[in-house]
Amino acid sequence: MRIAYFTTAQDKQEYLKSPIELNPSNQVFHSSFIECLSLTNELDIFVLRSNAYGDKKTFTNKEENLSWNYLQTKSGKFSNITSQISLSKRIKDKFDIAFVDTMNARCLLSARAYSKKNKVPLIYIVTDNPYNITNASKFKSKLLLNTAKKCDGYICLTPSLNSLFNKSNKPYILIKGLSKNIDEDKKSPVDYQYFFYAGTLLKKYGILDLIDAFNNLNKSDVKLVIAGHYNNEDFKNAIQDNDRIVFLGNIDNDLVSRYENHSIANINPRPFMEQRDKYSIPSKVIEYSSKNSLIISGYSSELKNVFNDSILWIDENNSLSQRMQEALSSKKEMINAAKAISEKEFSLEVNNKKIQDFLSNILK
Predict the structure, then answer these.
(1) N or C: which end of the chain has fewer CB within 10 A?
(2) Same structural domain for residues 162 and 38?
(3) Model pTM score
């Protein structure tokens, strides 16, 4: 099956060269989803980038059965609409089906224009409530919701997201997240013990809570390693002059996996919020689950039902500080339990079959 995939995620080579900060969680999720689809399909990925990337407007990077096609688009609230429709006309090939990341207006408008022009079925990948997107205006959030109504099917993270987007009761499946197998032979990138976090460096996602909890940890030979984006003043001030905290900036997925695989524990410090819990799943936790390390995470009702007690949950009875202290004692049985669940529920192979069955029904 030939698939067109509209996204802002980039291949490893381009991601590392990006002149603007990219969301690593979005990058990891869509890269994993693309890899999952590529197990049994041929993909053309259409990466829509703003003019912040300079003069190199259109080019293609090829790897096995993937073609990463980079297309430059105009920036601006209203110029987007006409430019995306125009851009979609530059895609000459006919595909069996198209996928699109619904959290990006450029992608959504281009995919819809391409689908309509070429009569190609369109699947929306829904990973969050648009009103939860960092720095998104109400105008943009409303645009995303209103635009995401005309399609042939949905792939959503949660039932609530399907209810929010899928008002016409189109075919859908739930994919809570994806985990990838790791290369067990790759050694730790450092020679010290550490806790690890990779993600957004904003207060609302718990990064300052994590730093406070680590500073209260009575273990001078252990470090906190952080990778991520949105490097803001609050974060800079919190780690200033602290040689026990190592900030890596944005790093590629392979290096992230190596850090995850050799940490004392991988941490998702995001505080629980009922509204966020309804629509959002911390994909970071699923990414962590295939690694040889403990997981400490803010509460998620969807994931608690899956992982049960194989994760050290942060809740009203167990603070982040307590969980970090607890993680210093080896808990191999918890690690093995989480990995077994990850392989059964979230592996690329398991979800590829689920998606292929879904697409077969769409294309009947």
Answers:
(1) C
(2) yes
(3) 0.89
